[in-house]
């Protein structure tokens, strides 16, 4: 932090370029971030407490309905639906589902919402924006990525979806203020942002607030269910909460916080390399001099599994955080650190705490389905990691 390193070329190759996630210059990033200083604070997020709790509760109830009579339920699909609904409300004042009843048929359709897929295809798939302009008759070509881009953007053009991405609608929402209206209306720094930039940041928030949260919530439940002693202890703690518990009450549970911290150490969704370019003149890093322009990286997964810092690093052991050492604190970076860290980490922490609490309260007898294999939950190393099986089947 503060050492002059800028984000590496990797970020300029993503179609998220030009957003907070990918802006290379630290100075430019600092200016852009000023447009959103209050939107993601704990205080502001608590104004949305009832909406978040409702979205979590509805998602868990839909999972329970889908899991009637011992049916297997894909909780990754369930949490993806939950996370996309929440970030949709935050950004646009409406969920990407047109109502609670339209949440995915959990266990039957593990695919993302078409709107999420459309945005992903533009922002994350190389060439996504270019492919969007290809004539639709080329869908006959046997290229899955091309067909995904074209079909998903057709879904995005449905009435209301494009209109929701217009600056005037973001600012003059008639339903209630959103994260973006709050940022745009209340911060002078935001007035210089073009419509294109605002729309792009909105799409980036959707990406950043969907898969990351869904994957971490899934690994959180999976890890707890696979460790009976952890589950029993956590179950007693969440059962001690009042019926209508608040976010503050949930986040004050000491063992729950240890469990979430340990899960993020082992399965943080942004565990991969975060490439940085060595600044002009080069830098001395430890005993090595690194020439300018050289890409270097501090990888969370490697740090989080360093046996010199974390004893038995591949064991899920929440109690290790009861006596955290200075080295553990320094190495822990599931949301990155400093000014370039994840702007939405407070929201993620709220969603994770509410998700596991509601899950254990509503489904105390849940267990991992016998159809699941170790391979299914191995980490697939993408920019945002995910289980290799792209599912997590549970009996509720």
UniProtKB/TrEMBL annotation:
Signal peptide start-end: none
Source organism, top-level taxon: Eukaryota
PANTHER family named in the record: CYTOCHROME P450, CYTOCHROME P450 MONOOXYGENASE STCB-RELATED
Binding sites annotated in the UniProt record for heme: 342
Keyword vocabulary terms for this entry: Heme, Iron, Metal-binding, Oxidoreductase
Necessary cofactors: heme
Gene3D superfamilies per UniProt: Cytochrome P450
Record's protein name: Cytochrome P450
GO terms of molecular function: heme binding; iron ion binding; monooxygenase activity; oxidoreductase activity, acting on paired donors, with incorporation or reduction of molecular oxygen
Organism this protein belongs to: Venustampulla echinocandica
